[in-house]
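Data availability excerpt. The first of two example chains:
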Amino acid sequence: MANQHPSRIGMVITNLSGSGAERVTLNLAEMFIAQGHPVDLFLLEHTVDFSVDPSIKLHFLTRNRKLYKWFGKIGDRLLANKLQRLVDKLNNSGPTPFGLFLSHLPAADKVVAHCHLPNTWHCIHSSYTGEIAEFKQQRRWIRALRKKRLYKTLYSGNNLVAVSNGVKNDLLNELQVKPLNIQTIFNPFNFETIRKLACSKPKQLPDDDFILHAGAFRPVKRHDILLEAYARLKHNIKLVLLANPCEQLDNMISKLGLQDKVFILGHQENPYPFMKQAKLTLLTSEREGLPTVIIESLICGTPVISTDCLSGPREILTGELAEWLVPVNKPIALAEKIDRALDKNISITFSAIESFTREKVYMEYQKLLTRMPDA
């Protein structure tokens, strides 16, 4: 049932370029709208790669952010001034005042930090310690130090929403952030919509049995580990990759002689039919926040084998499903786990995924709406 006295929700993000945090932001917006809240989404730049619910009011601060980025901190302040003026204008002219602001991703967080918006919370979507560790591995020591200082300075003294307890612990214990308040709130999922979309039959959907990896080709996703494990499988089953083709990925596949068994089908606007039809969904990342693909696959009824990476998977794959976690960067262990899972009938109960329903997540955000702005 919709809220009888809905507050207006403001959300700020860099853009809607097609990545995980952007999709989560839209899911949150749709959740609030379903509960009767007007939602205004403020984008730092004019980039929209998603279909956006027409009920969400979009506001673009600039068409080209390059100049603002070039000016660094001054650019952040200039964008903050534009955002503040726009919010003040909307607050004064609209029938419903803003009761909550949610800021997503560091670029937007840096801008919002210069504003005076009501009841503002920064949503942290991933483990920043992992990002800093990558810079250290690349011997980019100054970059790593600057990033650590940035996050500690940016988020200390502010209200934070962490998408998992792993992200929360990373902020508090590893980065030594001292927030004003910090809450763990999982991302919401529309179970009904996901299951409905999963029933469609895209032309690329394979007829034969397959296992699935849905994720962009990036170092942190560790496609090399995935392919090495796949090459070791005892089962003869296809591997479908929902990633855009690229030369480096092709070379990895060719090197292992898997050209006739691995199928790259590109990024899918609707990945759910693939999740529903797959025998297993695989996640091989070194780090995550709250990996959407695990939850969506479970909603579609398909078991998941996942690395037990720094944040997220162990909070999703709980109880009997925890058996299907594997250590990070261990292709032999991963292959053995996949073979074992293919021989078993793994059941997924509603209780295993209930925490990610819109209703459960909204109850947590309601608590933020009842807080005083400086609480």
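And the second chain:
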Amino acid sequence: MKLRFIFLLFVLLLPTQIQAATPKVTPKTLEVSGWIPYWRTSSGTADALAHIDAFTEISPFGYTVKNDGTLFDAMKIGSSSITELVTVARSKKVKIIPTVMWSDADKIEAILKDKKARTAHVKAIVAMIKVNGFDGVDIDYEGKHASTRPYFTAFLKELYNTMTSKMTLVCTIEPRTPLTDRFDKIPNDIEFANDLPMLNKYCDRVRIMAYDQLRIDLRLNASSTAPYAPVADVRWVEKVVRLMMKDIDKKKISIGVATYGYENEITQNPSGSYSYKFKWSFNPRYGVDMATSLGVSPTRGESGELTLIYSTTSPSSVTPTSTDPLTVNSSEGVGAVATGTNGLATTTQTLVNPMVKRLLSWSDAGAIKDKVDLAKRLGVRGIAIFKIDGGEDPAMWSILK
């Protein structure tokens, strides 16, 4: 049984007067965590080391799960670069909480539904924490079936009770958009994969992936004729967090903040509306370089992000500077998941249809500041930066000081 449960039982047996006199400990400042992707281990660790004082926690996005429920060390945690990061982080009292990421919905349900397999999976995670001396684990199981909900809760409960009181259980989950903003007519059979009250019970921290919004919110920008497909409109983020705060203690919540952008091909319809085709994700330098090559300046869109719309009949040699296998996943338990891979087979593109344009929207330091200010205003625990790899707007670091 987990030590924290024994401590709680002891507290519950104390006289009421003593309980009332015990102050509730809350963070004095906004906590900052960040993910280092395994596909950019070298640049990510160098980036984190250079700005280590900005962080409260760092999560190497380092483990995936095999079909049998065992862990795969995709980041090679024992490598020298990670070892140095862990050493420096400990000297700065920055926690190292690695992420275990899993996105195979069928396998997730199969393993977590089987009690024996679920227990073995829990033991593998706790063993990984102990062997490496980590401060806990970040569970990032995305795209789950709604039918997995009770088994995911059972898994979190067992993991929570197996971990020691010194270990932190972080749960990273998809954003939940208010249904009235997501649908004109709300379906009768909506179900969700995450039981938020149960996550609040068993997770010490909850990181909300408040990004990859794109076109999911039907209300924002509805009256405007301008193209609109942001990574994360700060107004949408506020809607998401306020909704999820109804079931999750805000002192457990960290708002996920993106450091990248998206490019969409947009076609204007006869009615004046636009159709969107997702192309790829990119790091901010691509947007800046594209604007420079076109001789224009990006503008601050209604979303708070930098935006650029262009149409050209001449080739452009600018390509995304990121090669990250990012996933567009702004829904939970329902809806399609589209995977966007960066890195192009060709370095040129030619648009010859004047009705077809390109829309770029990206999260620069200004957009990140909006999220930081929102987190402070809502009184949540912190923000979680995705991703730390050297590709973010360098001005971001002055925002996080």
